[in-house]
Amino acid sequence: MLSGWLFNVCFFLSVLAARTVALHAEQFDEELTLRPLRDGKLAARFSFTTLLKGVAPRNPERLDEDDDSQHYTLFPLALGQILREYAVTEMHLTLNAGNWAYDRWGYPDDLGVSTGAELWAWMGEGGPVTVDDRWKGLRNALAGLFCASLGSLDEQRTTSPALTFQPEGSLPRWNASHQLRHATLPSEHVCTENLTPFLKLLPCKARSGVAMLLNPHRLFDADWHGLGVHVRYLDAGVEVRLAFQAVFDPVRLSSDKRRDWSLRSVFDRTIDRACPVARSSEVRVELLPDSAYAITPDPSEIDGNRATYAVKDRTEPLDVAMRWPGEEAFQYPIEAAPLSPLSVRRTLKGSSQSDAQLSVVIRNNLPVQVRSSYLETMPWLVEFYLHTLHADIGGVPRDDLVSVISYTAPVPHTRPTLFQAILTLPPKTTLHLTMDVTKTFLRYTEHPPDAQRGWDLPPAVLIPFDFGEDPIQNHTTSPGTSAKYARPARPRRIYTSVLLVDLATPDFSMPYNVIIMSCTLIALIFGSVFNLLTRKFVLVRLDGDSAEQKPDVK
Amino acid sequence: MDFRLAFPALVAGRLLLAYTSLPDVLKNDHQLSSPLTSYSRLQEGVYLFQQGFDPYSGGPFRHSPLLLSVFSTVFPLTRFTSPILWTACDAVAAWALVRIWRARQNIAGSMRDTLVAASYLLNPYIFLPSLAFSTSSIENALCLTSLMFACQGRSSAALMALALLTHLSLPSILLLFPVSLLLLTDPFSHLAFPRPFVARIPSLPPLLAEFTAYFLGLCAAATLLCGNTTWVEKTWGAFLLLPDLTPNPGLWWYFFTEMFDHFRPFFLMVFSVHLLIYALPLCIKYQHDGVYATYLLLGVLATFKAYPTLSDPGLFLSMSALFPETYPYLRHPIVTTLLHLHASLLLPLFHNLWLTQGTGNANFFYASTLVFGMANGAALLDAMWAGLRVAIGEMRGECEVAQE
């Protein structure tokens, strides 16, 4: 009797568990893309995608109700809790170090290559908690989760450049609309303390699968490296993609200046076993079409210029290696056409600590006219003089090529500048943009501890979006580089390098002295004035012993 | 020299200077224009307004909406028109100074007219800010115009000019006390023969009411122009809250750069209230001479107001040309002159060393602003002493004047 009852309960529970699992079907895919670059470097991109099927982001209007309980097997719980708590629909966090060289490396596999920390999120409006409060909670929670100074991405750095940062997934159809919050912190660095929590979010940690290669000693030695967390809502469910990108320099690592590489030489590790819960686990190598290379072991599949290794099918450790047997030593390409449609150089000119000039030089590498958006999100440390914005091509003024579409002026100590413009770039020309800026003066408490180092200013972001018709292309036999860029699948962001601005500093040891000296001067004048105003004038006879007093002027 | 010849010559010389490249060099100088009077920021505000952005949504633009409307419609700011306007402001101010002098002496013209005009037009503290197209030149012109009308007994015009001035620069509201004193009495010099103020108290409220009406009218016009009241916080609020810590020759900026955050509101209150303290006592003590009371209060404002430029002390120093009767009784004129000379050499030098050369630090410039504050204070005290001392007259025998 009792056993029958117990059996029933167990059966019921197991059915319930099965139903829950069925509700939250999760799938995990991992992938490593290796891309030998033209200048001998090797770009590696790790991508770990977890898809939580049939789940929608939390509606902020139901934030005051109890949330559905969260039972995940593969989906990172720590991240999931943050997303539910602050009702985040889409979120992108990147922590990078170094400048991505678009000219030599082309577009990155993951577009977020802004130097330092960048966080942007789309969140629904409405409900008991405002978007700004949830944004504050989100960045503080992520700061705790990833051990990064994301708490500094406060109102003084937060903007809403919705044109440049369009959602990458879809937005649920709720009653209220969605809002974007975006902030960058270029001075933030990425290091082991950020990678460790990152690895903890993976179902197999770094013990198996391609994540075995995430060796901090090698990753943070790379010329460029950065990690990213991307959450978006797809029709299938909520997708979390953890990514790590790095650009290694095999020539620097090798003793005889060759660009040969292998997983062992680059990461100092091999992939010994597959992650058992991964649905797919692949290593992809992009092959250079025009060089004599040898790749070992034999790929599971070759599709065009891409060799694929399925880690799951292998029994022995995987150590992909690529060699160029015909090369004695790697010769750096001296004059090679840039791989990106636009080459951008942004500088801050002027030696004064009060004024400067922002100069942006943009070269259109394509033989077609390109229209591009241009975004500046500048902290209030630097104020733009928009009336001095000028564009010229080879010294000829072409202000008609720039149209300002939105501008939010900075508020000292409170709000950053947001400046968005559309640039029209004629084919194969270089556009010079200049604008006078003024540097602000900060309170002594607002300076960082190393004040003389200066402040890092966020990168500008360009998105080339409208590629004109190429008049030559129809007549030429070989569809050259232009055809490749003519119709990209979706607009891709180009980040400029960050700037360092030197702000005037007060003397940090002086607060008491300044208060004392200024107050002394004020008190001296105040006292003398009221001395003159209140005391009577009298005549004093100097030689007589009885002073004759003559009151005067009341 | 004949005034009718000298005045146009001085103005023409000023105009020619304004058409050289000097303004481009000077226009961003922190000593000549503050964030509230800067020409670049005015241009920026006009540009934003014309492009359809609200110039008062951000921090860079802090000029009055009235200036914004004038310069975005009837008077475009270009490299050709600006020198004309700023020279005209100086000419009007100098002309008003001469008229004040004549009204004070009750004469139609004198040999001193040229000297009085030159004391304004050739004062480097006045013409350098004017060459930098600082809107403090407009404020000075309004101030002297208001005083001129008050001397001529034209109360409505004087109060209108004062309301405009107050609208452009909030601390100038303190001038309402001496200007209404002047309107109730006469402009003649009574320093040597002081007499108590004959109370005509019942005629005071209509004056104040008229000023309030003008002032509210201007506020309403400004609010209509902007469509909202954010301009109040951005323009007048800056005088009280000091959001922009750009260096200037005054005493506030470094004090509040170095201020502990939790004491900031307290000291902002103290510094603002401190300015208020002087107005009434000065008016009571110098009740026999409204022009002199205005002059002294301008000296106080030049020393202690929130965003001063060199043209504020310049106005005070130029106005001293109106009171030759006090010159023999200045207590330490040489010390004051040397202090001013010292400060005017140190200010540009240390500003350059700190911000351009990078070889000095902020304390260099702060120290020179202290010297400048000392010089302004010494000039003020000198003028106060002489204004009272002149009543006793020349001393004969072994007597000395002292204070009880």
Structure write-up:
- The complex is a heterodimer of chains A (554) and B (404).
- Chain A has 554 residues and is an alpha+beta fold.
- Chain A has helices at residues 2-23, 77-85, 102-105, 131-146, 192-200, 216-219, 250-253, 263-267, 481-486, 511-534; strands spanning 26-36, 42-53, 88-97, 116-124, 158-159, 178-185, 224-233, 237-248, 261-262, 280-286, 294-296, 301-303, 306-310, 321-323, 342-349, 355-364, 370-378, 382-384, 390-393, 396-397, 402-408, 417-425, 430-439, 455-457, 461-467, 494-495, 499-501, 537-541.
- In chain A, helix 2 (77-85) runs antiparallel to helix 4 (131-146).
- Chain A is globular and about 120 Å long.
- Chain B is globular, with a radius of gyration of 21 Å.
- The termini of chain B are far apart.
- Chain B contains 18 helices and 1 strand.
- By secondary structure, chain B is mainly alpha-helical.
List keywords for this structure.
heterodimer, A: 554 residues, alpha+beta, Immunoglobulin-like, 11-stranded mixed beta sheet, 10 helices, 28 strands, 19% helix, B: 404 residues, mainly alpha, 65% helix, globular
Please work out how many helical segments of chain A DSSP would assign: 10
Percent strand of chain B equals under 5%
Strand content of chain A: 25-35%
Described by strand count, sense and barrel closure, the largest sheet of chain B is: none
Taken together, the total number of domains of chain A comes to: 3
For the largest beta-sheet of chain A, the strand count, sense and barrel status come to: 11 strands, mixed
Q: Helical percent range of chain B?
A: 55-70%
State Rg of chain B.
21 Å
Order of strands in the sheet with the most strands of chain A? 5-6-4-3-7-8-2-1-10-13-12
SS content category of chain B: mainly alpha
Distance between the termini of chain B: 45 Å
Q: Which structural category do the helix and sheet elements of chain A fall into?
A: alpha+beta
Biggest protein-protein contact in the assembly: A-B, 65 and 71 residues
Number of strands of chain B: 1
Overall radius of gyration of chain A: 31 Å
- Termini separation of chain A comes to 114 Å
Shape of chain A: globular
Proportion of residues in helical segments of chain A: 10-25%
Mean pLDDT over the full residue set of chain A: 89
Organism (chain A): Obba rivulosa
Keywords (chain A): Membrane, Signal, Transmembrane, Transmembrane helix
Pfam families (chain A): Gpi16
Signal peptide (chain A): 1-17
